[in-house]
Structure formats: structure tokens, C-alpha cells
Amino acid sequence: MSYLQIIRSQYLATLEMLKHAIEKCPDALWDNATDKNKFWHVAYHALFYTHLYLQPTEQDFRPWGKHRHQHDLTEEAEPYSKAEVLEYLAFCQQEVKEKAPQLNFETESGFYWLPMNKAELQIYSIRHLQQHAGELMERLGSRAGIDVDWVGVMHE
Question: What is the reported pLDDT for 74?
Fold first, then answer.
């Protein structure tokens, strides 16, 4: 298995875990007024940066069609519905399938704020995605007693 296939597999596995967390999220937790960072906003933020960092450069990035400039967790934002976030997640899964096999690990990241090569950027991005998926999974477990299964690999 090549490194490109491994990166693709791990992105898809992490996106699948996030998908399960989103699908299992009760309405009461989706946009809970007491949360500093709403469930939907954390999920959207994770997807936005996954989408962004799969692009060759910042200049190549084209936001998702329903993007409302709400990827920064420090900003107040109008909630996305669960269906909309799942739609964006499906879009990101397709981006991974198309873009990951074409990555050139030796080139620069393409993002001035991340002085690393593409290989490290992909590991960085998967770690970011998994951090937020884990955060949301913990929220489901501790507040609603809902478990989300681990997904180890995704070979399609």
C-alpha cells in the first residue's frame, strides 16, 4: 500500500467517525445554547479545514457552495442543519477520494501559515480532524450516553 493510499484511508476513516457522531447527535446537543462551541460549528470547522488543506494552495481553494464564512470557532454563527453538515461531509469525502491520490508530498504546504511540506500537512490535517471528531464523540458520551464506534481504515 502506498503512502497516498494510507493518507486517503485515514482521512476517510476519520470522516466516517465524524459522520457517525453527527448522525447520532441529539437535537438538544446540536445547537446547545450553553456550549461555547456548538456541536454543529465544531463539525463544520473540522470539515472546512479538511477541505482547505486538500487543495494545492490557498489560492486554489473554492469554498463549498453553502459556505457562510463561519469556519472560525471564535465567531458567532448561524447554525447549519444536520443535513447540511452531512452534505458537506459527503463533499469532503469525495474531495479526499479525488485529491489524495494526486498529492505531491515533496511540495510545500501551499499555505503560508503552515511552513511544512504536503506530507506533513496531511498528517497535521488528519490530526485536526480527529481532534474535533474525538471532542464531539466525548460530548455525546458524557452528555447523552451515546457511543461512536472506532473506524480503523477505509479502503474503497
Answer: 67
